[in-house]
Amino acid sequence: LIADIALVISNHEYLKSTVESVGIPYFYIPVTKETKAEAEQKQIQLLKQYNVDTIVLARYMQILSPSFVAEFPGRIINIHHSFLPAFVGARPYERAYERDVKLIGATSHYVTDDLDEGPIIEQ
Predict the structure, then answer these.
(1) Alpha-carbon gap, residue 108 to 110, rounded angstroms
(2) Predicted local distance difference test score (pLDDT) of residue 4
(3) pLDDT in the model for residue 2
(4) Residue 77 three-state SS
(5) Which residue out of 4, 53, 113, 116 is catalytically annotated?
(6) What integer pLDDT is reported at residue 84 of this predicted model?
(7) What is the CA radius of gyration of the chain?
(8) Closest to 81 in 3D by CA, of 98, 104, 63
(9) Is 114 one of the annotated active-site residues of the chain?
(10) Is the pTM of this model over 0.85?
(11) 91 to each of 23, 74, 84, 120, how far by Cα in Å?
(12) How many CB atoms lie under 10 A from the CB of residue 69?
């Protein structure tokens, strides 16, 4: 995949120095139930300011609102473990281990309003 990473927006601060060390702007925007709408507006503003073509979610662990998804139709990709739909919800790795799962992979799919139901790109 040939791509330029325009920026990183995160709801965690712990990779800021790593990202900035390679010259990529890093924006920390905490998200809570109370601040979700405001946080998404800040994210949308930054994504438009940086003229982002494609948004890739990795370990974001937040459900995007329908209005956010509508701002970027067909342009948001989510990457996560391939345990879905077998291990939905919290602690999928622990539950897979308890069930003696031997193989793990990753899934990438387009984001839609239906959680983790968008068209699969690759598994």
Answers:
(1) 7
(2) 94
(3) 85
(4) strand
(5) 116
(6) 62
(7) 16
(8) 104
(9) no
(10) no
(11) 33, 29, 12, 22
(12) 20
Buried b (16+ CB within 10 A) or exposed e, 86-101: ebeeeebeeebeeeee
- Angstrom distance (rounded) from CA 77 to CA 59: 12
How many Å from the N-terminal Cα to the C-terminal Cα in the chain? 15
- Judge contact between 109 and 85, C-beta under 8 A: no
Q: Tokens in use for 80? A: 């996560």
Backbone angles phi, psi at 44, to 5 degrees: -60, -45
CA–CA separation, 104 and 9 (whole Å): 27
Position 79, amino acid:
I
Half-sphere exposure of 37 (CA within 13 A, CB side): 2
Q: Alpha helix locations (H) across the chain?
A: 16-20, 36-49, 66-71, 92-98
Residue given tokens 């739909």 in the structure block? 85
Tokens of 87: 């291990």
Q: Which residues of the chain have pLDDT under 50?
A: none
The pair of three-digit structure tokens given for residue 38, joined into one six-digit string: 């405001």
**Contact between residue 73 and residue 102 where contact means Cβ atoms under 8 Å apart:** no
